[in-house]
Design brief:
alpha+beta; Butyryl-Coa Dehydrogenase, subunit A, domain 1; four-stranded mixed β-sheet; 11 helices
Length: about 400
């Protein structure tokens, strides 16, 4: 890969920068680390998403034929850099842009693409992910939610759990068992289900951080048209893996680099031995190690993005990004607790808390990413078997 910016890239940066500077007033304020998906926060996200879409800046990496800009790897990175420069973010409206949209591009019918992709871009359809169940987390193929063939439709019964933003979702992409007698990786189908269908109940799950983004979703005799199946009946595992690969190829390197910068700022303020923590060479060495790991993640992510932009679904290499990124995120949060010392005991937004107590909140939340999207133990297996070609243990 050539890491130099071409004239086209520089022109793209100028266009992005000018638009963002002229429209930043529509963006919500910097998101609270709590990020509990409150109605006020959600309305602000919707407003910013729609403004970005009006300017053609939603899903810039999507192919032009599906409403994106067909941005190259470098242009996608430029877009993120320009957002970060102004302390802005891409609004998170569920899993439509990042997961369901790219999956439909590879597996969906023409009608499914026409029906859903434009609505996702407009922010008119919010999607959540129906994978995990109480008895099927890391061993996802053990799922028991059933979809019985009733001729023109499927009848769905079962439960999903840890469903992010289900309280706001219009649709859910759902893994169901359509052949209970088949081996567990067989007999699974991938369905698109309207969350407003009769028989669906959403219940919140409050986390120890106080956040309310997760939910349980219950299905009781929910009718789903046959036209809503993605891929072939009983062959949904292949489709599901495609979605998981997109999920595991996030920009962990960029978020880690931002956290390293914030950690440096913290170390320069925390009092220690008559000075500040940053005066300690041991602290600087530890932070330098975090910075090196974040840079390695960033460049590994470039390789994964290149694969997607060539039209291929993400490969198992995305597991490396997920594994290393979440472990680094956890390590940074735990080290921040060491730096803070007694200040680490102060809650988020407590009086006298440094950085408003955001590091304590991050520490409480940092274990979660090592579990969701396939636990890190599962990622070790995937990397060993599919990337390194090692025999199964």
């Amino acid at each position: 890969m050539d890491f130099n910016y071409s004239p086209e890239d520089e022109a793209f940066r100028a266009e992005v920068r000018a638009w963002l500077e002229n429209n930043r007033e529509y963006a919500p304020p910097a998101r609270s680390p709590l990020d509990d998906g409150s109605p006020e926060d959600w309305k602000a996200r919707i407003r910013w998403h729609k403004r970005l879409n009006e300017g053609g800046w939603v899903a810039v990496h999507w192919p032009k034929e599906y409403g994106g800009r067909g941005a190259t790897v470098m242009q996608r990175l430029i877009f993120r850099e320009e957002l970060a420069r102004l302390d802005l973010t891409e609004p998170f409206l569920g899993m439509g842009i990042s997961l369901l949209g790219p999956t439909l591009m590879h597996w969906g019918t023409d009608e499914q693409k026409r029906r859903h992709l434009p609505a996702i871009l407009r922010g008119d359809e919010v999607w959540c992910q129906g994978y995990s169940e109480p008895g099927a987390g890391s061993d996802l193929a053990s799922l028991k939610t059933r979809a019985e063939d009733q001729g023109d439709y499927f009848l769905v019964n079962g439960q999903k759990v840890w469903t992010s933003m289900a309280q706001f979702a219009d649709w859910i992409f759902l893994l169901v068992r359509t052949d209970p007698d088949a081996p567990k990786h067989k007999g699974i189908s991938y369905l698109l289900v309207d969350m407003h269908s009769p028989g669906i109940t959403v219940r919140p799950l409050v986390q120890m951080t106080g956040g309310r983004g997760f939910n349980e979703v219950f299905f009781e005799d929910v009718r789903v048209p046959k036209a809503n199946i993605v891929g072939q009946k009983n062959n949904g595992w292949q489709v599901a893996i495609t979605t998981l690969m997109f999920e595991r190829s996030g920009n962990y390197g960029e978020s880690a680099s931002q956290q390293v910068r914030e950690l440096i700022e913290l170390a320069r303020r925390v009092p220690r031995n008559g000075g500040v923590a940053w005066d300690d060479a041991g602290v600087r060495q530890r932070v330098a190690r975090f910075a090196s790991e974040a840079a390695a993640l960033k460049y590994t992510g470039y390789r994964q993005l290149t694969r997607q932009l060539k039209g291929a679904p993400p490969g198992p290499e995305g597991s490396i990004m997920k594994l290393c990124g979440t472990e680094l995120n956890l390590a940074i949060a735990l080290y921040a607790m060491e730096l803070l010392g007694p200040y680490s005991q102060l809650d988020f937004e407590a009086p006298f808390a440094l950085d408003s107590g955001k590091w304590s909140l991050r520490m409480l939340a940092a274990r979660g990413p090592t579990i969701y999207a396939g636990t890190n133990q599962i990622q070790h297996n995937i990397i060993g078997e599919r990337v390194l070609g090692l025999p199964k243990g």
